[in-house]
Amino acid sequence: MITNTDQMSRFLDLTSQSMQLVNRGNRTVEEIEWLNGQLQLFKTRTMPGRIKAQITFDNSRPVEKMIRDGRYDKVYSSVEFFSNDRMFPFEKWMKKTTTVVHVIGFGRMASTNEVYREFEALDLRPVKLPELLALGAQHPNLQREFRIVGLVFYKGGSYPWMPVLESESDEGIKRVLGYTNDVGGCWGPHIRFAGVPR
Fold this sequence. Notes:
Elements: H1 5-23, H2 29-45, E1 49-58, H3 63-69, E2 74-75, H4 77-82, E3 96-105, E4 110-111, H5 112-121, E5 124-126, H6 129-138, H7 142-145, E6 147-149, E7 154-156, E8 159-168, E9 174-180, E10 186-187, E11 191-197
Parallel strand pairs: 2-9, 6-11
Antiparallel strand pairs: 1-3, 3-11, 4-10, 5-11, 6-8, 7-8, 8-9
Helix pairs in contact: 1-2, 3-6
């Protein structure tokens, strides 16, 4: 279900372009297939759903090494700068842990507080940074399909931020470890959120 006006406009625009290409005899099959693929991808990304992925992570491992484990094509410099052990008072005694990450899309616009309430109803909590990094390293294709947010606030500089697994399509699909400081806004229906059992 697509509930946001901008998202619906984009959906209708893609549908219109697809029909125009089909009706024009001078368009190639490749062009039509590409646009239909984009339309299907858009529909998939904005549908509600849940993906479960098992991960193993080690809280005693430095965050910088966890980032390197992911072999990302791009890491935002702010993430590298703020990712140090002083920033993250993790439970070092936990050491190596295996759990299941739930990657959830609600298929509608939702505020951060709404997502928190949905997580509570599902008996989940947002992933911490090591868990999100393990997801990126051990299930790299997920972020090629979805933008995945870890709903945990970290304070870096003068603003709070949240870590994000995402992709960029410049010269092929590249895996990116990024962040967002739009922590109090409203999330679009294409956003997925990562949580683990409480």
